[in-house]
Automatic annotation (TrEMBL):
Organism phylogeny: Bacteria, Bacillati, Actinomycetota, Actinomycetes, Kitasatosporales
Keyword flag Magnesium: no
Residues in FAD/NAD(P)-binding domain copies: 17-297
Tagged with keyword Flavoprotein: yes
Keywords: Flavoprotein, Oxidoreductase
InterPro entries referenced in this protein's UniProt entry, alphabetically: FAD/NAD-bd_sf, FAD/NAD-binding_dom, Ferredoxin-NADP_redctase_2
Pfam families: Pyr_redox_2
SUPFAM superfamilies in the cross-refs: FAD/NAD(P)-binding domain
Catalytic reactions on record: [thioredoxin]-dithiol + NADP(+) = [thioredoxin]-disulfide + NADPH + H(+)
Name by which UniProt lists this protein: NAD(P)/FAD-dependent oxidoreductase
PANTHER family from the UniProt entry: THIOREDOXIN REDUCTASE 1-RELATED-RELATED
Amino acid sequence: MTRNKDVTQSKDLTGSYDVVVVGGGAAGLSAALVLGRSRLRTLVVDAGEPRNAPSDHMQGYLTRDGMSPAEFLALGREEIARYGVELVRDRAVDVARGEDFAVRLAGGDTVHARRLIVTTGLRDELPAVEGVAERFGRDVLHCPFCHGWEVRDERFGVLATSPLSVHQALMVSGWSDDVTLFLHTVAESELSDDDLRRLAAAGVKVVPGEVAGLRVEDDRLTGVRLADGTAHDRTVLFVAPRAVPQTGLMEQLGAELQETPFGAYPVVDPTGRTTVPGVWTAGNALGFAEQVVHAASGGYRAAAAIVGDLIMSGLDAALTD
């Protein structure tokens, strides 16, 4: 087990690491903190593209409620540096498994590690409706747990992109009594009788027809425009982005993936260990619904498992010498 030296944030990558963490979000930084405190030489490779970058604040994380995601990550980077964890701004583009893991970076370096944690998360593909991408994270939202309190009792719209959007409309009705479900690309015939009864019980208005764009005044959402020219006053619009898991490295390693309604994710055990020996994952890399607090917890759990794995494998190796 390699002992850490002085605190560094390195761009001159030399030698081998005990662990390379690919991804510097909440999951990756949490894992790195545990690994650094466990005296393992650790490198975080961070492309600097967190999923929650469009949001001005994050919610629901005890003692960090309302904090800017950028500030949260900056504090995390400061904390891991105290324990000698190195961090490089780069992207892992290729990985191979031999006696150790060889991770090739976009900048040209190749780094080696005994264990690997992949926390590359996912990418949100937003519906192709004029104005949605520009206002995402402001008054175009996706998660009531993340933003519901801040927009409570406003006039909600929900943009349907599949029958699953009914569930989103029912959920957000807990934060406002004024909710309209715009069917957009979903036909009325695709809604079940149970869907319609629940929507009626929740007081959700259902509007058929494709949404053409948003109405914005003084940099605030004021309405939703339909393709037929009609408009509906709304101050908040909930959408359901299409989740695109970033599984390229996992596929290169031959990890088993499982299909879900929100994409294919690695098969893991309770610690985040994948089917590839020596490889763990955490955060949105293993599921669509992982919030920041879940991601941080998962990174901690994966790192603790790796520490135990390295200690025990070292002892087993010593016994066979």
